[in-house]
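// run 5 | inverse folding | seed 20
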């Protein structure tokens, strides 16, 4: 089978197109929700922190679907036998991510916005882990690639994401520490 030629169930281009469409729609909706929440956070006196690293996160999330399509279409990546496991893991990551967003409610944003003196959220997945949203995104990017057998995308995007999240979590931890010190 030559690159770009599809046959079979999950290897068909229609499933990849649907997956990419879902990911893009998710991000667009999330950016809208974040925009609404950011206006509310600003109005409540929240302060933005760590905005300089944000383009790195954007780059990871823009490169992800592009790399996935390129690997499947031009490098011939195909789902392995474990694709149902990767799909289940991707769905679990979605559940974790959206439960984190729900727990933060109007405090959720793609930026780091902190209301001075306001306590950290300790409900939902935040009762069990410090950064459930970031954990979910790591799992999502890795498993989403591996659903389609795109191991190169999984490797490169996951490494870039881990670098970006290392910078991000440090900035977030500093912002929260500064807020608690006030």
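// decoded
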């Amino acid at each position: 089978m030559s690159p770009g030629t599809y046959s079979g169930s999950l290897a068909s281009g229609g499933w990849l197109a649907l997956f990419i469409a879902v990911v893009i729609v998710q991000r667009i909706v999330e950016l809208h929700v974040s925009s609404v929440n950011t206006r509310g956070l600003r109005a409540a006196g929240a302060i933005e922190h760590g905005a300089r690293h944000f383009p790195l996160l954007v780059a990871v999330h823009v490169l992800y679907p592009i790399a996935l399509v390129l690997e499947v279409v031009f490098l011939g990546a195909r789902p392995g036998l474990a694709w149902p496991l990767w799909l289940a893991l991707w769905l679990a990551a979605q559940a974790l991510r959206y439960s984190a967003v729900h727990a933060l409610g109007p405090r959720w944003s793609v930026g780091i916005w902190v209301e001075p003196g306001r306590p950290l959220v300790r409900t939902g997945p935040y009762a069990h882990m410090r950064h459930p949203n970031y954990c979910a995104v790591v799992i999502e990017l890795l498993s989403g690639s591996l659903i389609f057998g795109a191991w190169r995308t999984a490797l490169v995007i996951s490494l870039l994401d881990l670098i970006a999240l290392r910078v991000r979590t440090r900035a977030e931890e500093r912002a929260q520490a500064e807020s608690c010190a006030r």
